Amino acid sequence: EPTVRTELMEQIPPIAIFLQESRPKFPTAFFEYLMPIVVRYLTDVNNQVRKASQEALLILLEQDLVAQSDIENKVCPILLDLSAPDSDDEYKVEAVNIICKMASMLSRTTVEHMLLPRFCELCSDGKLFQVRKICAANFGDICNAVGQEATERLLIPKFFELCSDSVWGMRKACAECFMAVSYTTSPEVRRSKLSPLFISLISDTCRWVRQAAFQSLGPFISTFANPSSAGLYIREDGTLSIRPSAQDVNSNSCQPSSNITLMSSSANAA
Fold it and tell me: How far is CA 91 from CA 84, 96, 102, in A?
């Protein structure tokens, strides 16, 4: 019964946390019994069960309860199978979504060697625009997960493709995450490649794309500033913030210091 399997998935994270806290008593229970169930339900025939399994997996990764070996040997192979070119459309959309969400929780090496090649393939998926839309919306997070070298070598060419996609929603998603992508690249790439690309989005034929680009203009310009002198930086939640200078902190010592959020890279996501 699907409802039973769904309910079971919702109970996995609290059980896993309990086992983690009681590891001396149950040293291998999670890896032997629970993790195989989570992995198996990622391919369940019922979409509610799959959704519950995906949510459970993200919670387990967030809590750092899944061993690196299980991620590389059990979780990633399943997601790669589900996102393969000949995979069922519904499974593929779900797989690329979970790949994007879990990228920030995995080691850079795992993402770059196991998931990045498939992500690049999915960016060019000509069959499903939903797949390309998910890739575009999460592009900044993937860049941040793999770092500057892999971003410039592998991801920037794909970003150019998505920014010229025939579906305007794709171009709009690219405009919204432009700051996050730019922040991951070198000043030279920003100047010579991303600036002309951004101008093309500001001049787009679709007014929704132009509007999104103009809203990202300030944050994009801020990535050209020297963080050490301007105090601008990107927080973990993707927001552009200002770090108060030492002089400002001293002059306002009676008030608790705080960061000023300027704009989130995904604040206007559709």
Answer: 10, 9, 16
Q: Is the pTM of this model over 0.85?
A: no
Residue 5 lies in a domain: yes
Q: On the CB side of 2, how many CA atoms lie within 13 Å of its CA?
A: 10
User: What is the pLDDT averaged over residues 35-50?
Assistant: 92
Indicate whether 35 belongs to any domain.
Answer: yes
- 34 located within any domain: yes
Any domain includes 10: yes
Q: Which two structure tokens, joined as six digits, stand for 238? A: 């993707």
